[in-house]
Amino acid sequence: MTEPRIIRIDLASPQPVYEQIVNGLRAMLVAGRFSRGEQLPTVRQLAIDLGVHHNTVAESYRVLAEEGWLDLRRGRGAVVLDRREPKPNEETKQWFVRRLEELVAKAITDGVPRPAIADRMTALAKRIVSGERGEKT
Amino acid sequence: MIPHPQLFFGAILLGAAALVAWAFWMLPQWSRPGIYFSVTVLPEFRKTEEARRLLKKYRLHAMVYVAIGFGAILAGAFPAFWFLLIIGIVLLAFGPLFAFLAARKGMLPHAAPGATVREAALEPRVEHLSGRWIAQIGPFAILAGTGAYLYFRWDAIPARFPVHWGINGQPDEWSVRTPLGVCTPLLLAAIIVFGISVISYVLRHYARALPAPGSRPITQDFRTKVAIFLLIIEFLLTTVSSLVALLPLLGNLPLLIVTIATFPMILVLIAWLAKGRVPYEGGHASLTGPGLSIGDGTLDKYWKLGIFYFNPDDAALFVERRFGLGYTVNFAHGAAWLLLGLLLAVPIAVALLLVHEH
Description:
The complex is a heterodimer of chains A (137) and B (358).
Chain A: E1 6-10, H1 17-30, H2 43-50, H3 54-66, E2 70-73, E3 77-80, H4 90-109, H5 114-132
Chain B: H1 5-26, E1 35-36, E2 39-40, H2 49-76, H3 83-107, E3 117-121, H4 132-136, H5 138-152, E4 160-165, E5 171-176, H6 179-206, H7 222-245, H8 247-250, H9 253-274, E6 303-304, E7 308-309, E8 318-320, E9 327-329, H10 334-357
Antiparallel strand pairs in B: 1-2, 4-5, 6-7, 8-9
Helix pairs in contact in B: 1-2, 1-9, 2-3, 5-6, 5-7, 6-7, 6-10, 7-9
């Protein structure tokens, strides 16, 4: 059975809600859980379901559209694009490594066991590679 | 002609009193498991001694107001005490509300922090009105059918006919055979049904989908139940209005029988609607998953007096009522005020039309 595609936010989190929506949606888009041409809920529907302002969801969709994940057209809502991956520059690569190391350090500090982190990262690496080969996860 | 008209009127009034008393008696138990007297609580709070004490106190106060209110209405039927009718209606409308506010005040120290986690499915939905267009045009078809019947039996309608009867069973208001005089009940019903249809549409598109709580697979959305409820009310209303319009041809007996039969039907409907908000037997209080189990998807700080919802950061125009069944508007949105104004304009227009007619 396909896992339901659900986005979850926490209004009490210090992270802005629009960023939480962007991160949640982006993770699903990267994992290939949406196919090209698929329609996302309208801004109104998602805002009402999450209990947030329209502008918050609209901003999230705009960020993802700027990243090339979504096509926003009037009357059609948000449509998933077949995103061509841009060539990363050196700065982006360094930013990613730094963020990853920081995240791992924080997880260890917060008590997440090292083997659990390693297992999770291995699983993630496998998924990324299979995604590169165009396999469905 | 009805034998013993006082008995009929008495039965109607008694039925209405029983219905109102039962509704106010049950109201606190019809809220979602995480809400008690409009305050967010842990679902198990309801079983505590303090919860039972507050419920008992509320019920006692509410029933006293209902009893005095109906007593006043009954006394107001006598022309010399007409003012008691207004006092009775005010007592009925506001008395249980005071009882609720007192109970809510007692609840505030027991409030639990509401869940701040929100979830939403990422599947686009196509929202349809209950029963699609075929059911939606049903009430209008009843009115149109009655109108057509009256047109074809126009000559059988008396030039002057009674439309209102006093408590002694004697007619005290009359209408004449003109298109407006005959069809006013149908026109009024059409306006009201149109207003209800607008509410159904807005509920479908601008209210949050909260599932019925319980451990069964969640398929029932409370909005759907409310929409079905409203549709049935439309059918009842158009049936009664049609019988009012047919008074000059059929007399008042069918109307009285249907009106009295409507009470148990409304009772069953309300009980069915209330079941959509309380957990199924053996169910639990969770809405859709862990972290969402407390409250109703809104936070206490946005509820003024536990009755008025005001949250500019919530896109929903309608939210579930915390006290009472159904929905209330999000007063932070101008569109909600506009809608409320339009909905209030309907009964005002109806009242003005009736006053103008007389």
